[in-house]
Design a protein that fits this description.
Blueprint (H helix, E strand, L loop, with lengths): L7 H4 L13 H12 L2 H15 L3 H25 L6 H8 L2 H36 L13 E4 L3 E4 L6 H16 L1 H26 L23 H12 L5 H6 L8 H30 L10 H8 L8 H32 L18 H17 L2 H5 L3 H21 L14 H15 L3 H25 L4
Antiparallel strand pairs: 1-2
Helix pairs in contact: 2-8, 2-11, 2-13, 3-9, 3-11, 4-9, 4-11, 4-16, 4-17, 5-6, 5-16, 6-7, 6-13, 6-14, 6-16, 6-18, 7-13, 7-14, 8-11, 8-13, 9-17, 13-14, 16-17
């Protein structure tokens, strides 16, 4: 039998005071695109091309997409079989046990906490840029992080009070989530339409401004250091742009609020993932064709490409900025949603205080979990810079994906007779391949990233043995 958490009765539709099932397959696809298409395509793309892969960044996106599709198949099997909130935490709890589930849950908190914060900081940069173009200048000590990390000296105080716009967008998104997920999904649908339209405009009009000489060399020669161009650079860029795909993991946290999750969750995950992969490859191809990759290490690479195109595309520049702001806003929304549901799921099992598992009977939203997610993300976003936050995200995501892939194989062996509305084909080959792709990308990340993960894990184990194990729900 699958080991169930306290969430399970509600998850399988027995009623009670749990989360409300309001989402359709269409809602899930828009939530997925809303989560995936954002900072990755509007910010990280330029950095990855300029520092690691050059025009061959398209290969990096394809490798990441391949790994995500394999992991997405495994997520689809689990989310259809175990339709509860909590993403891979809930799957691990149900299949492997409490300690590993806590380890993964704590890793997911790291992933989502810094993902929300980093995307909020990216939103702040685009918003300040747009306001500046309108002649509105915010005080410098309210638009920069309080601290910065410099390679030579470590952490330094910038003199700024806080990054207020980053805190503001987190608070605004949290207010929407408190109102209820269905209302948030409607807002996300509008945002998705806007930003996909802007991206398609960029692709369509940018094609005629491509200079094919910018594609030479397609794979820049390695500089002699691992990860600096060449094939090792493509691999390093693959790990970096994996950040751009992590939104579909947040989608799986909505399983308990989805109508007919056995059918709709696999559709939502795979369709949104495939749509975004196509958009990413197309945008990268056009972007590196319009501007030489060496010049793309800027905060707004797509806006730079439009500006470089000359007067013929200047009319598109404000739409690109508005589309970027809309796109990044939706990522903040869905990532914050995912973090609150992870707090909710872990608290339902008693591994975190039960306060976070309380659901508002009117809205069906875990209000306390949302408020706590808002406070924690707002503080991190306001205090720390973008480059330091992004580095904390990818390794946690890759680790979670690898464990989901491996768990599918384990569960097929240990409980082969479970009802599986959706089944990953070619088990164990495809799940193990997915795990291998994720682990390969993890290996390419620098040691400092692994060190932060180890420190975070040790802190999580201390919390588990001092609090979680004694308060855990026992079936």
């Amino acid at each position: 039998m699958i080991r169930e958490s306290e969430d399970s009765d509600t998850a399988h539709g027995s009623g009670g005071k749990g989360l409300k099932r309001t989402l359709s397959a269409t809602d899930l696809v828009t939530l997925g695109i809303g989560a995936i298409v954002g900072t990755g395509i509007f910010v990280v793309t330029g950095q990855a091309a300029a520092e690691y892969a050059g025009p061959a960044l398209t290969i990096s996106f394809l490798i990441s997409a391949f790994g995500c599709v394999l992991a997405g198949l495994c997520y689809a099997e689990f989310s259809a079989m175990i339709p509860v909130s909590g993403s891979v935490y809930s799957y691990s709890y149900a299949t492997i046990g409490e300690l590993l589930a806590w380890f993964i849950g704590w890793d997911l908190i790291l992933e989502y906490l810094f993902a929300v914060s980093s995307v909020a900081v990216g939103w702040s940069g685009y918003m300040c840029n747009l306001l500046s173009s309108w002649g509105i200048e915010l005080p410098p000590n309210l638009i920069q992080s309080t601290f910065d990390h410099v390679a030579e000296t470590g952490w330094v105080f910038t003199g700024s009070i806080i990054n207020f716009p980053a805190v503001f967008i987190v608070a605004l998104v949290s207010a929407l989530l408190v109102v209820g997920l269905k209302q948030s999904a409607r807002v996300t649908t509008v945002i998705v339409v806007i930003k996909v339209a802007v991206i398609l405009l960029f692709i369509g009009f940018g094609l005629s401004y491509i200079d094919t000489s910018n594609y030479t060399p397609y794979i820049p020669e390695n500089t002699g250091a691992f990860g600096s161009f060449g094939w090792s650079g493509i691999l390093r860029a693959t790990a970096l742009v994996f950040f751009a795909y992590l939104g579909f993991d947040a989608l799986s946290t909505a399983a308990q609020e989805t109508r007919n999750p056995q059918k709709n969750m696999p559709k939502g995950i795979l369709i949104s993932l495939l749509i975004c992969a196509v958009l990413y490859v197309a945008v990268t191809t056009v972007l590196t064709g319009m501007v030489n990759y060496k010049e793309l290490n800027v905060d707004a690479p797509i806006a730079l490409a439009i500006d470089r195109a000359g007067e013929g595309l200047l009319w598109l520049s404000p739409f690109i900025k508005l589309g970027a702001i809309a796109g990044i806003s939706s990522v903040v929304l869905v990532m914050a949603f995912g973090l609150s549901r992870i707090y909710y799921a872990i608290a339902k099992d008693g591994l975190l205080p039960r306060l976070f598992s309380k659901v508002n009977p009117k809205t069906g939203a875990p209000q306390n979990a949302i408020i706590f997610a808002c406070i924690s993300c707002g503080l991190v976003a306001g205090l720390f810079p973008l480059h330091a936050l992004v580095e904390m995200v990818s390794i946690g995501t890759l680790l979670a994906f690898a464990i989901v892939c491996i768990s599918v194989v384990v569960l097929r062996k240990t409980q082969p007779n479970l009802k599986r509305p959706f089944r990953v084909p070619l088990v164990p080959f495809l799940p193990l391949l997915g795990a291998g792709v994720c682990i390969l990308q993890m290996v390419s990340l620098p040691w400092s990233t692994w060190l932060r993960l180890i420190i975070w894990t040790l802190a999580g184990l201390a919390i588990y043995f001092c609090y979680g194990r004694r308060h855990a729900f026992k079936k």
